[in-house]
């Protein structure tokens, strides 16, 4: 790890103080040019943060134990490691095996009270809200990259993280620095002291993100929904536009057993008078979303139905296999833009991001088409169709439900030439495991089951193998650890084969960390930001 130098830390604290004083003034210039916003006192880039500090070898592993009843006083958070310990002592719903999804368990009133004690930072920043089953991260990445290309300073709030919790809170693609993270968590800890009940891990990080974005006076923040939508901790914002990327069966124990039930929970992010977007949907899902949008009073449009859109798969010498999209509206005529992320399924996500930019342009943001196009081309997102090792080739992808596994297998076949695929697979026990295994069976030639050491919800690999044997005639193996599974995979591949690690973001994060520490020489952050499949 590269620790910030003492003088850099001092500069960071001074910069945060200066930016905080400027936040109220910055609220008055939202929507103006990027130059005007930057003149409002933002000084994040002077904080001495090194972007190459992602892997956390000295951080404690996240705890799965319930949060303690008492809230830590700010004096207990003396530094970065203390901030991590306090944060990971909160109840982490992402890691719980059993969660009760209700208004009692997911209390937006508690989130609003917490933010009020912090000065309501979420009301000081323009936002975009992105929900859905699959494609949220890709849509956030493309939106943020296009806005950055237009000269705006853009906050990104995403989940889960692959390696380091600081990945969740980023500005212009750079994770929050350690000093800023510590200050934000300390402030949230202070605010929780007088709450009736302790906030969850996700509530704390969400509040810290809003506080950081407000203090750094970002021009706009792209906020990804964590779980569902209606009761998600992020659903306290009034965004410029609400986006639903896809609706599929996932978290069915919590969100509903049918796609229509899940759609109702996802559409809980719609707000009165706020434009809402979705992509070409099945008629039953379309009807549910339109019904809710009408009830709430949210102008609703579907890309490829209400907004003219088309896509085609092609190949060129400079880009290789890729998808191109066209989108037409009353104010835009975007033609044959290359989708920067691999896979035909990314065309819809790109269409949503472009349609959102069109709405933002109507709301006063300066987004020239040539800058939008240039920004889109720079989009990168770790953990999706990412090659982390060359000999043998190792591909990682955080596909964690049947629809995502299907897209991965199709995408890998189109973008990564190989003779055979050895799939290293591990997933959470609360997923639709049988359907995921069916999709793996269709795409992989050999399968090795394992589990993520960092995920208490991970299914036992021997149980995965048993279920796979019931559904497939293929041989499979078990590696009790990722390192053991990779050793088995290495023995099974030839030069023209590929090892694909998938099933959960936890497993993908373990894999990136493994190759960063074992086989990669240099800055670990470079591994997480390079080797993109086109």
What is the general shape?
globular
Using only CA atoms, what is the Rg? 22 Å
- Strand arrangement within the widest β-sheet reads 4-3-2-5-1-6-7-8
Structural class: alpha/beta
Number of helices: 18
Low-pLDDT runs of 5+ residues are 1-32, 37-75, 519-534
Summed over residues and divided by their number, the pLDDT gives a mean of 83
User: What is the end-to-end distance?
Assistant: 30 Å
Largest sheet geometry: 8 strands, mixed
Strand content: 5-15%
Task: List how many beta strands DSSP finds.
Answer: 17
Residue share in helices?
25-40%
Folded structure, characterized:
- The chain is 39% helix and 15% strand.
- With 534 residues, it is α/β, with parallel strands linked by helices.
- The strands form 3 sheets. It has an 8-stranded mixed β-sheet, sandwiched between helices. It has a 6-stranded mixed β-sheet with strand order 12-13-17-14-15-16, sandwiched between helices.
- 53% of the residues are buried.
How is the topology of this model organized?
Elements: H1 6-27, H2 34-38, H3 80-88, H4 108-117, E1 127-131, H5 136-149, E2 154-157, E3 169-171, E4 174-175, H6 178-192, H7 201-215, E5 220-224, E6 242-244, H8 252-255, H9 259-266, E7 276-279, H10 283-296, E8 300-303, E9 308-316, E10 320-328, E11 333-338, H11 346-362, H12 369-377, E12 386-389, E13 393-397, H13 402-415, E14 421-425, H14 433-443, E15 446-449, H15 461-471, E16 476-478, H16 482-492, E17 498-502, H17 505-518, H18 524-528
Parallel strand pairs: 1-5, 1-6, 2-5, 6-7, 7-8, 13-17, 14-15, 14-17, 15-16
Antiparallel strand pairs: 2-3, 3-4, 9-10, 10-11, 12-13
Helix pairs in contact: 3-6, 5-11, 5-12, 6-7, 9-10, 13-14, 14-15
């Amino acid at each position: 790890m590269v620790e910030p130098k003492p003088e850099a830390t001092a500069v960071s604290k001074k910069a945060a103080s200066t930016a905080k004083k400027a936040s109220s003034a910055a609220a008055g210039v939202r929507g103006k040019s990027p130059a005007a916003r930057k003149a409002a006192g933002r000084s994040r880039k002077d904080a001495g943060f090194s972007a190459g500090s992602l892997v956390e070898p000295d951080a404690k592993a996240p705890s799965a134990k319930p949060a303690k009843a008492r809230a830590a006083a700010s004096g207990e958070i003396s530094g970065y490691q203390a901030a991590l310990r306090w944060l990971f002592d909160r109840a982490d719903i992402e890691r719980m095996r059993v969660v009760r999804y209700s208004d009692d368990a997911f209390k937006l009133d508690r989130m609003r009270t917490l933010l009020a004690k912090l000065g309501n930072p979420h009301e000081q920043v323009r936002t975009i809200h992105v929900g859905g089953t699959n494609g949220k991260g890709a849509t956030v990445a493309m939106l943020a990259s296009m806005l950055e290309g237009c000269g705006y300073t853009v906050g990104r709030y995403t989940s889960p993280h692959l390696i380091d919790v600081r990945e969740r809170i980023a500005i212009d693609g750079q994770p929050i620095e350690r000093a800023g993270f510590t200050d934000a968590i300390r402030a949230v800890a202070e605010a929780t002291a007088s709450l009736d009940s302790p906030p969850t891990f996700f509530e704390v990080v969400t509040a810290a993100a809003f506080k950081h974005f407000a203090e750094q006076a970002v021009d706009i923040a792209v906020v990804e929904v964590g779980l569902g939508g209606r009761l998600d901790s992020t659903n306290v914002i009034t965004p410029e536009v609400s986006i639903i990327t896809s609706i599929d069966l996932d978290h069915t124990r919590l969100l509903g057993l049918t796609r229509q039930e899940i759609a109702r929970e996802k559409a809980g992010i719609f707000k009165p008078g706020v434009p809402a977007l979705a992509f070409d949907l099945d008629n039953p899902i379309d009807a549910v979303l339109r019904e809710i949008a009408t009830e709430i009073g949210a102008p609703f449009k579907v890309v490829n139905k209400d907004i003219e859109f088309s896509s085609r798969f092609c190949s060129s010498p400079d880009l290789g296999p890729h998808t191109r999209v066209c989108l037409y509206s009353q104010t835009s005529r975007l033609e044959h833009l290359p989708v920067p992320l691999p896979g035909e399924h990314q065309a819809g996500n790109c269409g949503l991001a472009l349609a959102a930019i069109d709405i933002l342009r109507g709301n006063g943001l300066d987004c020239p088409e040539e800058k939008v196009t240039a920004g889109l081309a720079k989009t990168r997102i770790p953990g999706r169709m990412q090659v982390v090792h060359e000999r043998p080739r190792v591909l990682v992808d955080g596909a964690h439900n049947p629809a995502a596994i299907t897209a991965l297998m199709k995408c890998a076949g189109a973008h990564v030439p190989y003779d055979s695929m050895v799939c290293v697979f591990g997933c959470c026990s609360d997923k639709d495991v049988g359907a995921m295994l069916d999709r793996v069976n269709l795409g992989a030639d050999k399968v090795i089951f394992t589990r993520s050491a960092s995920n208490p919800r991970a299914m036992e690999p021997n149980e995965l193998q048993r279920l796979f044997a019931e559904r497939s005639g293929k041989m499979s193996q078990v590696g009790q650890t990722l390192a053991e599974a990779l050793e088995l995979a290495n023995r099974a591949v030839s030069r023209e084969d590929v090892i694909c690690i998938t099933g959960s973001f936890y497993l993908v994060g373990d894999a990136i960390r493994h190759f960063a520490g074992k086989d990669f020489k240099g800055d670990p952050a470079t591994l997480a930001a390079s080797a993109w499949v086109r």
